[in-house]
Amino acid sequence: MAAEQQTSRFKRRKMVPADDVDRKNPYLAHMYNDNESQHDSGVSLSDAASLNGHPNGNGSNGSAMKRHATTMKQAQTAEDGPHNYFKPAAQLSDRYFGILKTRRGLPVHAQRQEFLDMYQKTQILVFVGETGSGKTTQIPQFVLFDDLPQSQAKMVACTQPRRVAAMSVAQRVAQEMDVTLGEEVGYSIRFEDMTSPKTILKYMTDGMLLREAMNDHNLTRYSTIILDEAHERTLATDILMGLLKEVVTRRPDLKLIIMSATLDAQKFQKYFMNAPLLAVPGRTHPVEIFYTPEPERDYVEAALRTVLQIHATEPEGDILLFLTGEEEIEDACRKIRLESDDMIREADAGPLEVYPLYGSLPPAQQQKIFSAAPAPFKTGGRPGRKCIVSTNIAETSLTIDGIVYVVDPGFSKQKVYNPRIRVESLLVSPISKASAQQRAGRAGRTRPGKCFRLYTEGAFKKELIDQSYPEILRSNLASTVLELKKLGIDDLVHFDLMDPPAPETLMRALEELNYLACLDDEGELTALGKLASDFPLDPALAVMLISSPEFYCSNEILSLTSLLSVPQVFVRPAAARKRADEMKELFTHTDGDHLTMLNVYHAFKSPSAQDNPKQWCHDHFLSYRALQQADNVRLQLKRIMEREEVELVSTPFEDKKYYENIRRALVAGFFMQVAKRESSGKTYVTVKDEQSVLLHPSTVLGQDSEWVVYNEFVLTSKNYIRTVTAVKPEWLLEISPTYYNVEEFRKGEVKSSLMKVRDRANRRAAVAPAGRR
DNA sequence: GCTAAGATC
Predict the structure, then answer these.
(1) I want to staple A188 with a disulfide (CB 3.0 to 4.6 A). Which of A204, A492, A494, A628 is the partner?
(2) CA pair distance A575, A481, nearest whole angstrom
């Protein structure tokens, strides 16, 4: 059978099981050569009791524990109950003891004493724990029993890159500690603060901790801060690391734990003044890796072929295929379904259920990936299985049990930033070795699995970089620089980041903030800049919002800002493009996409739509989720505006300047994102950078607008500007004279055109009576 | 002729 042959084209390669790796792990050297026996005996209960008093003032159970001098034995005694150590009045439940037994079987538990020894000795600790080690749930609890934050009226914080992780881990740990979620154990994410004055352990997003740091530079509420998943190197984690590196010197009482997957632990150690490192093995099943002997020309085609081969020839087990984006995924799903139907008819294959998975999929659709694989057509027949075709959301954010086969073509969409043309865009790029490993690991969650890499072993070794570049090296840093200024970091150039961005990127950010008048010419934060940093928004959006009362439309700009900070509100399913476009026309404002979006929002908030908003959105091909989210953001921003006394005003809808005012306010924030149509008629050129661009095909704007502001630059098959609205050149000169200092423009169509406009305006001004202007 | 995913007092 052809499929059989093709499978054997994969070169077999045995992957070493995680445990073996760890035995040979040089980071673990310290485990085997020193004084671990000294703690083995532990402190006897009576010894412990003679130490300091119980921090709760209640020694009802466990032994008295001295802060930063406790032992594993003491903690375990306390955990063994019968009373809840952190809630002395409460008796521990049966469920608690059930979970406790499981917890004590986790790999981290075997090294609890070792962890305590290191934690007590050092201010900063790097902790490496692989998947399945239990680090995220257990380490914070180990810390609690030694740090005793309640005795200092402080908390232990544990950051996560994702909201869902912060929520679900907090939920789990509250159960493990037999407390109510939101009391002793809570979480804090945007739009939801699930903590109380009782809280001693708080899981939170890294962005949330960063926001807190802006108002409390020393993070005084915390006695220990744990940065989890630090290897993901999110922008917020990177900045927190730089910040905390300074905070620890100002606050000798603060302890810091950096938790990461193994790969670059030494880098963290080095960065944190050679902090000691503790490594704990994970618990996963071995995954066999296969490579293609030759490079594949068309990775999608190769991926489909591989999936079908697995279905035809491999034993029972579900398949996970990684592709790069929505359209590619939907297309692949369609093709796999077609082919598998043929296989069922012609080759007696088992049933195959195919599910797409990507972030913008409605939650109900996302949930489907967890449904059980289909049963064989008849008992004893060929196994049924499910195949999930996913973006890299399945690499870190979503874990699907039951996956035995992973197909990895080796690509993902990644953000790249080019400071020269100031364009952030998404490009399909090769993944890193670390990502490839993470993907392979998805096959070994429940039992031994196989991973088919659609590239050669040579390519894996030589062409893939070890780690993806951290986000800070791939982003426009305007909002980061503003945050750093607000964090009290004056000297950005010498701020010690783990991977300092290119000087050009920093310069661009400073320049942009200076044009936005958030920083003065000395680089100091202005009043506007301070105010802008209070909003969880990109600087351009924040400035637009803050300026909008001057244009009598802050209510409208508030709505628009919210809409621009959430995913696309227009839905356009491949099967109903025409109807979707017709529906969009109902909202179209011919002057631009911004105004069209605003029309959508107003319609959404109208009583007739609010009657059954979900249905209404469905009928009008709009994303209910996005609009709801926009509503949420709007409320949050509105509260900040009220607090900061930014006026909320509107131009009456009947006023003929209603839309014009909104368009002018757009210019106040986005004057740097303006393009002019070239005389040739089809293409546009961005001002100053002179990039040749096209209007994105989704725009409502015709080709008749000479000047437009755009919300984003997307670099896909061509250079597009997306979400565009027509503006008048005289507004540019009037609203942002510093940026539109025409003399400084490079010679060209933009310059000559703006000069004409300026001269016309000047003539008019000269003629007009002084009092009239 | 449209292409990620995660985050923000």
Answers:
(1) A204
(2) 44
How far, rounded to the nearest angstrom, does the alpha carbon of residue A172 sit from its chain's CA centroid? 22
User: For residues A213 and A486, what is the distance between their CA atoms, to the nearest angstrom?
Assistant: 9
Residue A98 confidence (pLDDT): 94
Residue A527 has which token pair?
Answer: 């009043």
Burial readout A39-67 (b: 16 or more C-beta within 10 A, e: otherwise): beeebeeeebbebeebbbeeeebbbbbbb
Q: Report DSSP letters for A193-223, one per residue.
A: EE--TT-SEEEEEHHHHHHHHHH-TT-TTEE
State the number of CA atoms in the 13 A half-sphere of A306 facing the CB. 28
CA dist A283 → A106, A176, A193, A266, A449 (Å) = 8, 20, 33, 22, 14
Residue nearest B8, CA–C1′ metric: A536
Whole-angstrom distance, CA of residue A355 vs CA of residue A374: 12
Pairing mode, if any, of strands A385-390 and A403-408?
unpaired
Alpha-helical runs (H) found in A288-392: 299-313, 326-347, 363-367
Environment class of residue A657 by beta-carbon count within 10 Å: exposed (0-12), middle (13-18) or buried (19+)?
middle
Which nucleotide has the shortest C1'-to-CA distance from A325? B3
Taking a C-beta distance cutoff of 8 angstroms, is the pair A426, A433 a contact?
Answer: no
* Bases of strand B lying below 7 A from some protein CB: 1-9
Q: Quick one: how far is CA A381 from the chain centroid?
A: 43
Q: How far is CA A362 from CA A410, A546, A571, in A?
A: 26, 33, 11
pLDDT given at position A738: 92
Distance between CA A508 and CA A519 in Å, rounded?
13
User: pLDDT at position A364, please?
Assistant: 78
SS3 content of chain A, % helix, strand, coil (to 5): 45, 15, 35
Spanning CA of A558 to C1' of B3, the rounded length in angstroms is 29
Q: Torsions phi, psi of A125, nearest 5?
A: -135, 135
A155: buried, middle or exposed (CB in 10 Å: 19+, 13-18, 0-12)? Answer: buried
- In chain A the first and final C-alpha atoms are separated, in Å, by 85
Tokens 């924040």, residue?
A542
Cis geometry, peptide bond prior to residue A315 (ω within 30 degrees of 0):
no
Q: What is the pLDDT of residues A631-674, one digit of tens each?
A: 999 999 999 999 999 999 999 999 999 999 999 999 999 999 99
Q: How far apart are CA A514 and CA A610, in angstroms?
A: 42
Predicted local confidence at residue A17, as pLDDT: 40
What Å value separates CA A697 and C1' B1?
A: 6
Gap between the Cα atoms of A518 and A528, Å rounded: 5
Q: What is the CA A445 to C1' B8 distance in angstroms? A: 32
Closest residue by C-alpha to C1' distance, nucleotide B1: A697
Report whether A442 contacts A369 (CB < 8 A).
no
Burial of A600 (0-12, 13-18, 19+ CB in 10 A): buried
Q: How many CB atoms lie within 10 A of CB A104?
A: 13
List own/partner pairs for A528-535 with CB under 8 A and 24 or more apart: A529/A482, A529/A485, A530/A486, A531/A644, A531/A646, A532/A482, A533/A214, A533/A482, A533/A483, A533/A485, A533/A486, A534/A640, A534/A644, A535/A637, A535/A640
- Contact of A560 with A598, CB cutoff 8 Å: yes
User: Which tokens sit at A92?
Assistant: 């521990």
CA distance linking residue A174 with residue A188, whole number of Å: 14
Q: What is the pLDDT, as a whole number, of residue A482?
A: 93
Tokens 């449904």 — which residue? A371
Residue A769: predicted pLDDT: 66
d(C-alpha A295, C-alpha A729), whole Å = 52
The distance (Å) linking the CA of A392 with the C1' of B3 is 14
CA of A121 to C1' of B9 (A): 36
pLDDT for position A771: 53
Give every residue of chain A whose pLDDT is below 50, as ranges: 1-62, 772-773
